[in-house]
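[step 3/7] inverse_fold.run input=structure_tokens len=78
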């Protein structure tokens, strides 16, 4: 039986993998006028995750640090 910490680490890993596969922000190719930042959510193993998608091209993940939120990347994404 998995401990609570093991389950949280598994969820965090799944969340990072999910973000790696879905967050698209290519600053080199996107123009500020054509960049629409979409706010989305996904439920993974009972945990609701929030993420942004934007732009086109190769996937790029922008992970915030401790005591930050994903909103810190909004000015940088375009």
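[step 3/7] decode complete -> sequence:
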């Amino acid at each position: 039986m998995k401990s609570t910490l093991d389950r949280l680490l598994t969820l965090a890993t799944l969340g990072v993998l999910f973000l790696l596969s879905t967050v698209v922000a290519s600053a080199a190719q996107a123009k500020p006028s054509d960049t629409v930042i979409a706010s989305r959510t996904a439920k993974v193993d009972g945990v609701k995750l929030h993420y942004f998608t934007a732009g086109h091209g190769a996937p790029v993940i922008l992970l915030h640090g401790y005591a930050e939120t994903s909103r810190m990347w909004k000015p940088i994404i375009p």
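[step 4/7] annotate
Helices lie at 4-22.
The chain has a mean pLDDT of 75.
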